[in-house]
Design a protein that fits this description.
The complex is a heterodimer of chains A (237) and B (319). Chain A is mainly alpha-helical and 237 residues long. Chain A contains 12 helices and no strands. Chain A has helices at residues 2-14, 16-39, 46-64, 69-73, 77-81, 87-108, 110-119, 124-150, 155-177, 182-191, 193-202, 207-233. Chain B is 39% helix and 28% strand. In chain B, strand 7, helix 6 (165-178) and strand 8 form a beta-alpha-beta unit. In chain B, helix 3 packs across helix 4 and helix 4 crosses helix 5. Chain B is elongated, with a radius of gyration of 24 Å. The chains are: A mainly alpha (237), B alpha/beta (319). The interface between A and B is medium-sized, with 28 and 33 residues. The complex binds adenosine-5'-triphosphate and magnesium ion. Magnesium ion binds at residues 40-41, 81, 157 of chain B.
Chain lengths: 237, 319
């Protein structure tokens, strides 16, 4: 796990994928900060995170597209899967590397948050809450996109799949609001990843969204491990 | 050190290998020889636990690979057909990564890396990006990776492919040196290479073993003997014992008989220096058993050798 984590971090530092992710992320924060907060003279962090959320469905797939797809294609998976390490620890190591890049980038936007906290009237508690919920959302997004990367040997397909999944979850959220039947409404809301996010950011820190995102992450990590494991255990492939 | 029983691998309806069994003793170098698609890579992918067999058993130093993969994999270093390298990494960071992956203790890690880099002679490129290495260096780095955790068993899929003649020579003597401490299985489709390096050779054709022996014995068997098929009208047991008595007959194999027609069929192996067909003819005529058919039987071993020697010649011309 540690070996994979280090290797992936190293590769993020040597390839454009991590930089594209972090670059777009920070660029967007800068733009929003200038226009929404400075020119718009609003002093909350929600504008920034809301906008980040909208581009998430594009930039998270970039972060994860290579992670599993590329190993298979360049047959470096032969090294990984003939070494004394479990599939689970390989997947978790890779997941944590992507999560680390995301969290460091998010932490770097903290500078804007500090400004907002100093000059605005938002309480630090609210800002930290918003950050925390966005971090949880991102953690779930990375798990979903990692799953997408496990389904293909092609990086581009992997990115498109990841985008498709995230987009799908977003659409479900919109649909759930316009659903006339209360039952369906509930079902869709339950799987619409963003509906919990709103709940999260609107109020104070609550346990249920936290559990929700954590389960989302774990379920997709589990699915990823299953996909890879099944493929390896296939006696006829 | 390595034991394989009844190993079979199908790729859907495609056959990879069929019912392969063999043993490798500690310190031995076993060669897998076969033309393209014979099943060399398939066997290696199964032995290293990269792919599960459709059926069969694998033991590495007595450990069942399929039941205790983690333990068995600790004992194996694998150089796959395509060296598993990350082009974005530098040689040294790649070797550090592999050491971590293979649980090489951090305290001896650097020492191990230096030793292996010296062994395969890649010290001069240790700071380079793998992407910029030449094919030969990539191959050697692949070998370094397999050696890093000092495994008991080394499995090398065509280790000399892509190297220049001087390097081929170096790698071959390296492999021979390594066999003092490691048990090695290597594959090749170059006959000369396998006979030079290996203690024993398995010759594969269409996923099956055609022969398994020392290179010397294989060559002797191949160049000094021939086989032919005969169909004779008469009782098979009687004829069998008569044939065995003929001078120069090395072995007789009874084929399936057709009880209705009364024919008996045999495959006879004899040394090339002795004519056995003439005494056979007169003996059968004397006994009143008519010979209906005699035709040369090419040993499948011979086919393979023909192919392989042809290939070797091509390769050498290319060099
Ligand atoms: N992943 C796969 N899917 C389907 N068939 C496969 C697969 N891998 C190998 N085969 C088939 O299994 C057989 C043995 O292939 P293998 O790669 O083991 O041969 P090889 O002896 O290594 O050949 P080469 O000298 O070309 O490397 C071939 O007929 C091949 O087509
Ligand atoms: Mg092969």
């Amino acid at each position: 796990m540690g070996a994979l984590f280090k290797k992936e971090i190293y590769i993020y530092l040597c390839t454009p994928f991590g930089y594209i992710f972090s670059g777009l992320f920070l660029l967007l924060c800068g733009i929003i900060f200038s226009f929404y907060n400075l020119s718009g003279t609003r002093a909350d962090i929600l504008g920034m995170l809301g906008a980040l959320n909208m581009v998430s469905i594009v930039i998270f797939p970039v972060l994860t597209m290579k992670l599993l797809a590329e190993e298979k294609k360049s047959s470096t998976d032969q090294l990984l899967f003939t070494s004394p390490v479990t599939v689970t620890s390989i997947i978790i190591g890779k997941y944590l590397a992507a999560l680390f890049v995301f969290l460091t980038t998010l932490a770097a936007t903290g500078i804007f948050a500090v400004f907002i906290a100093i000059f605005g009237d938002t309480t630090p508690g609210a800002i930290i809450g918003s950050y925390f919920s966005f971090a949880m959302l991102g953690a779930a997004y990375i798990a979903i996109c990692l799953f997408a990367s496990s389904l293909t040997e092609n990086q581009v397909t992997s990115a498109i799949l990841g985008f498709g999944f995230l987009f799908g979850f977003m659409i479900i959220g919109f649909l759930s609001n316009s659903m006339p039947w209360p039952f369906m409404n509930k079902v869709l809301k339950a799987i619409a990843i963003l509906s919990k996010y709103d709940e999260f950011t609107n109020g104070v820190l609550r346990l249920s969204p936290l559990v929700y995102y954590l389960s989302f992450t774990l379920i997709f990590l589990y699915l990823t491990i299953q996909v890879v494991d099944r493929r390896l255990k296939d006696k006829e492939a | 050190m390595i034991e394989v029983k009844g190993l079979t691998k199908n790729y859907g309806s495609n056959r990879g290998i069929n019912n392969i069994s063999f043993k490798v003793q500690k310190g031995e170098i076993l060669g897998l020889l076969g033309s393209n698609g014979a099943g060399k890579t398939t066997i290696m992918n199964l032995l290293t636990g990269y792919k599960p067999p459709t059926s069969g058993e694998i033991y590495i130093d007595g450990i069942n690979l399929l039941e205790k993969p983690m333990e068995a994999k600790k004992k194996i270093g694998y150089l796959p057909e395509i060296p598993p390298l990350y082009p974005e990494l530098k040689v040294i960071s790649y070797l550090r990564f592999v050491s971590d992956l293979k649980d090489v203790p951090v305290r001896i890690r650097e020492e191990r890396i230096n030793k292996v880099m010296n062994l395969v002679n890649i010290n001069d490129v240790k700071g380079r990006l793998i992407r910029n290495l030449s094919k030969g260096y990539k191959q050697r780095l692949g070998l370094a990776q397999a050696l890093i955790a000092n495994p008991d068993v080394l499995i090398l899929d065509e280790p000399t492919v892509g190297l220049d003649p001087k390097q081929i020579h170096e790698i071959r003597s390296l492999i021979q040196n390594l066999s003092k401490e490691h048990t090695i299985i290597l594959s090749s489709h170059i006959l000369a290479e396998v006979s030079m390096v290996c203690d024993r050779v398995i010759i594969l054709k269409n996923g099956e073993i055609v022969a398994i022996d020392t290179p010397q014995k294989l060559a002797r068997e191949l160049f000094n003997t021939e086989k032919f098929f005969v169909r004779i009208k008469g009782p098979s047991d009687k004829i069998l014992s008569e044939i065995k008595d003929i001078e120069g007959v090395l072995s007789v194999e009874k084929q399936k008989n057709d009880p209705v027609s009364g024919f008996s069929c045999f495959i006879i192996e004899n040394s090339k220096s002795v004519d056995v067909k003439t005494p056979l003819f007169f003996k059968m005529a004397f006994l009143g058993y008519a010979i209906h058919e005699i035709r040369p039987e090419s040993a499948s071993l011979e086919d393979v050798f023909m192919q392989l020697t042809a290939e070797t010649n091509c390769n050498e011309e290319a060099v």
